[in-house]
Structure formats: C-alpha cells, structure tokens
Design a protein that fits this description.
It is a single chain. This protein is α/β, with parallel strands linked by helices. The protein contains seven helices and nine strands; from the N terminus they run E-H-E-E-E-H-E-E-H-E-H-E-H-H-E-H. It catalyses: GMP + ATP = GDP + ADP. Residues 20-198 form the Guanylate kinase-like domain. It is found in: Cytoplasm.
C-alpha cells in the first residue's frame, strides 16, 4: 500500500503545538484500553480520537458516533471495497475499521490522532505508517485479565475462553510495538502514556 500521509513533516507551526502524528493504542480485549483512552481524552482535549466503525451490536450505554459507528456487515464490506478504511480487521466474529478520510485530515492539520484498535489493525498501521507511535497495553496478569472480562458480565463461558486464548497469543506480540505499558494502576499507566506523547 502506498503511504500517502506525511506523519511528521517539518517543524512545529504557530497554528499547532504538535506535529501531526498517529498514536496507536492496542492490547488484548479487557485490558482497559477504552478506560485509559477515556481518561486521556478528558485530560487532553487537544487529542483527536478516531471513532471506529464496527458491525457488532452496541453494549449497554454505548452511543452511535461516540463509542463506535455501528453498521451492518454488508455496509462494512461495501466500505472495504471502496477503500474507505485506514485499517480493518475481523475480531470475535465482528468487523472493526478506522475511517481513512477523517484520520488523514486531522493528521494533516497537525493533530495527534489516537486510534484504539485490535492487534491485526495495529500491525496494518505500523506497516503503512512506520512513524506512528505504537503503544501496547498489557494486563498485570492473565488472571487479572480474566477477572476484568468476567466483570463486564457480557460474555458466555465459551466467549471468555476464546478471549483469553487470543489474549495469550496477542501478548506475545507486545515486543513489536514501540512502548509496552502495564495497566495495573490507572493513574500510573496514564502517566506512562503522557510521558511518551508529550515529552
């Protein structure tokens, strides 16, 4: 795939204190990526969060256009064929993707753009945009990860077992990423991310 995005170009401008850059946040399901991202955006409203598109059903309290754009599989596949995604992947029987145009526009305008995506999508971004900052969020332990997944109260035993098997595989890939952060304590994990983003 041809790289069309100058992730970092030139010096900082008067219009923006940041160079435009992609920030990829990934890690196994249940590790707390969403919680970390929510807290990060609350502290740093200058960050741009790219809302992903998914074919899964909304969870309790999720809002279309805020948490995800919820669409049908048919519509998703149509968007894939039109090249509308920066990356996309299938996870746990559902499609997830990052809208291309919105992300590129924000990076070109000098924003730090944060993507919260699954491992397969994160690898696609790293391949296409090697200057993106990639952060892998790790659980303190697999047992704690299991407790968090069970605490959601949303998955069957079969689904939990599948997520845990997948998590073990994904954790093996942590070394592929620029930064590894253990989400044991939310505040400490947030500070670790902030150091990488703003120092």
């Amino acid at each position: 795939m041809k790289q069309v995005l100058p992730i970092q170009t030139g010096s900082k401008t008067k219009e923006s204190p940041f160079l435009g850059r992609l920030i990829v946040l990934t890690g196994p399901s249940g590790v707390g990526k969403g919680t970390l991202l929510h807290a990060l955006l609350k502290r740093h409203p200058e960050l741009y969060y790219s809302v992903s598109v998914t074919t899964r059903s909304p969870r309790l309290g999720e809002i279309n256009g805020e948490n995800y754009y919820f669409i049908s599989r048919t519509k998703f596949e149509q968007l894939v064929s039109q090249g509308e995604f920066l990356e996309w992947a299938e996870f746990a029987g559902n499609y997830y993707g990052t809208p291309r145009e919105a992300v590129l526009n924000q990076v070109h305008s000098g924003k730090l753009v944060v993507l919260e995506i699954e491992l397969k999508g994160a690898r696609q971004i790293r391949a296409s945009f090697p200057s993106a900052l990639s952060i892998f969020v790790l659980p303190p332990s697999l047992k704690e990860l299991e407790n968090r997944i069970r605490g959601r109260g949303q998955d069957s035993e079969e689904a939990i077992a599948l997520r845990l098997r997948r998590a073990e595989e994904e954790i093996q890939a942590a070394g592929e990423f620029d930064v590894q952060i253990v989400n044991d304590d939310l505040e400490n994990a947030l500070k670790d991310i902030e150091v990488k983003l703003f120092d």
